[in-house]
Amino acid sequence: MQKLHLKITTPERVLVDEEAREVIVPTKSGQISILPSHTALVAEITPGEMLIRNEKEEKVALVYGGFVEVQEGSKVIILADSAEHLHELSEKEAEEARNRAETLMQEVRDDKERFADAEAELARSLIQLKLLKKHHSHRHTKLN
């Protein structure tokens, strides 16, 4: 069976560099499913859940924006602003970040730059919490 070669890079690290059967990516046009022999494309990624499927497993990652490029020969390159594997996320830390951001937004209402930073941190923590809650409930029902 033909596979994709997937590489996900952030400014800090290479998150993934492996073969995959399918990659599902959140884009401005909606979620796209990339399979081997997919037509070439470049799309802007929106913050959200990304799925990487192989024959025996499904990996979940959280991507916070960037671009996806599908090249001839089933090569998929994702240049992400930031990205994390699901197992790297902590519900406790995401809750703490949400609380900090909400408090800071109240304190710096008149400082547009600091308010925007706090608002971005709030959005990031809310995405993390949503993904963690979704997959926490699936862990108990997921079949191998």
Automatic annotation (TrEMBL):
Span of domain ATP synthase F1 complex delta/epsilon subunit N-terminal: 4-83
Ranges of residues in domain ATP synthase epsilon subunit C-terminal: 89-131
Primary location group: membrane
Keyword Cytoplasm: no
Membrane topology per record: Peripheral membrane protein
GO cellular component labels: plasma membrane; proton-transporting ATP synthase complex
Protein location: Cell membrane
UniProt keyword terms in alphabetical order: ATP synthesis, Cell membrane, CF(1), Coiled coil, Hydrogen ion transport, Ion transport, Membrane, Transport
PANTHER family from the UniProt entry: ATP SYNTHASE DELTA/EPSILON CHAIN, ATP SYNTHASE EPSILON CHAIN, CHLOROPLASTIC
Role of this protein: Produces ATP from ADP in the presence of a proton gradient across the membrane.
Subunit organization: F-type ATPases have 2 components, CF(1) - the catalytic core - and CF(0) - the membrane proton channel. CF(1) has five subunits: alpha(3), beta(3), gamma(1), delta(1), epsilon(1). CF(0) has three main subunits: a, b and c.
Protein name: ATP synthase epsilon chain
Gene behind this protein: atpC
